[in-house]
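Final report, Chapter 2: Outcomes

The project's central promise was a pipeline that accepts a single protein chain and returns its three-dimensional structure in a standardized token representation, suitable for archiving and comparison. That pipeline is now operational. To close this chapter, we reproduce one record exactly as it appears in the project archive, with the input sequence first and the structure output second.
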Amino acid sequence: MQIWVDADACPNVIKEILFRAAERVQIPLILVANKILQTPSSPYISAMRVGAGFDSADNTIVREMESGDLVITADIPLAAEVIGRGGHALNPRGEFYSTENIEERLTMRNFMDRLRETGVNTGGPTAISRKDRQAFANGLDRFLVGLCRE
């Protein structure tokens, strides 16, 4: 089992939580981005730089991940592909995407995209709050504890 991170847009505070978790449970953590990333020196943490281009990091994660892997992403289409391949997807606000909720999330995302295309200002996501960080850390911890029990 590995943890993959869609790292281009992943907040640094979430990366820090992931770094500590990878060390604690000794699970490989791979950050994928189209820019150079700084990571702590660790046998469990690595960064993979991909070429620039639309969805380069997403495509690499989907190609390289295996069933059972965890992917950290706020990208709903990527989460849908991960779930379709038997992986787990967790967003930086602590919400797990699942077969039960991914279609609804995709529908809402596509609706908002259509609104933006017509010129409606839908705003962007709010900044990651302390509550979001805690929800992420708790969700990640529950997932990892579940792995350790298997």
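Archive annotation: The first strand starts at residue 3 and ends at 6.
This record, like all others produced under the grant, will remain available to the consortium after the project formally closes.
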